[in-house]
Amino acid sequence: MSHGVRRTRQSPQDIEARRQKEASKIQEYLDLYNDVMSKKTAKEWSQEAFDLTTQLLRANPEIYTIWNYRRDILTNGVFTSKTPNEINHILASELQLTLSALRQHPKVYWIWNHRRWCLENTPNGPGTDESGEPGTPNDPLGWKRSNWAKELAVCEKMLDADARNFHAWSYRRYVVASSPDPRPLPSELAYSLKKIESNFSNFSAWHQRSKILPALWEGGERSEQEVKDQELELVKQAFYTDPNDQSAWLYHRWLIGPGSNASLLEQEIAVIQELLDIEPDSKWCIEAIVHYKRLLLRHKVQDADKLKSECAEGLRALARVDSQRRRRYEELGS
């Protein structure tokens, strides 16, 4: 019995039949792979070669060489006899192919890369308006707008399936930065907050904020100090929710930066100390306090002996609660 299902005893004949069937499938795959690779070596850009890459990539989408060959076939063969409208339709099919592949293999770099290539090679054309009818002919970015507009929805589907898929987050940043109709950064900030509030342990969502906020500050849309105060309050909530999750602690370290603001360092050390009083064995609390006190040493020369002593005590505590890294803490304290 396994999970309540009775196992059926297989006869030697059944086992051999299954082995032969599996061997046959493996041989079919190897024959297909060798056929495609021979056509690649011969620089064959035919429709037949293109169709064979489709079969192979559906069987195994992790072979980046075949994705590269597929793009070569398109640019050197298929596209050469097609109109811009036909090329746009082919690229739409490619986007659908990659979407199907991503549902089964959401963390394969080469699938995401091929999707980028399709978007970047969409030809100029009229596209469609909101009703689905042909768009304004004098809009040269019509097809591009239409294809790029769908990408955020794709990202959201992938992130709904796995909110911590860093491939999807990276691709989302690419879409936001490259779309002909840029998405407002505050909207992206709100989206990352939604994901964080759903799960404070979402490192990719915290990382997304670290990419968006500097752009808002540089553009003068938000005050850096005001935003940092709000972010520190948000990250404090994450600390208290799960002090042993590293995601919020790493984001907090990004907010503090190189420690040029002594009063901010003292403020945050006090905040973390309050949590440490409640969670005395929290590795991340102790490590953060040690790190920030070491930064504070640059500003508080008169308190150097006291701070060094407190850092040494913290490192000893870390060696106790995180014994697997004991040698590291001993080295830091030497």
What does this molecule look like?
The chain is mostly helical. It is built from 16 helices and no strands. Helix 13 packs antiparallel against helix 14 and helix 15 (304-321) packs antiparallel against helix 16 (326-333). The protein is extended, with a radius of gyration of 28 Å. Mean pLDDT is 91; it is low at 129-135.
Q: How many H/I helices?
A: 16
Q: Main beta sheet, described?
A: none
Care to count the β-strands? 0
Order of helices and strands: HHHHHHHHHHHHHHHH
Averaged pLDDT, please? 91
The helix/strand class is mainly alpha
Radius of gyration: 28 Å
Low-confidence stretches: 129-135
Beta content: under 5%
| Helix amount | over 70%
Shape: extended
Keywords:
mainly alpha; 334 residues
Short synopsis of the structure:
The chain has 334 residues and is mostly helical. It contains 16 helices and no strands. Helix 7 (151-161) packs antiparallel against helix 8 (166-178), helix 9 (185-198) packs antiparallel against helix 10 and helix 10 (203-218) runs parallel beside helix 12 (246-256).
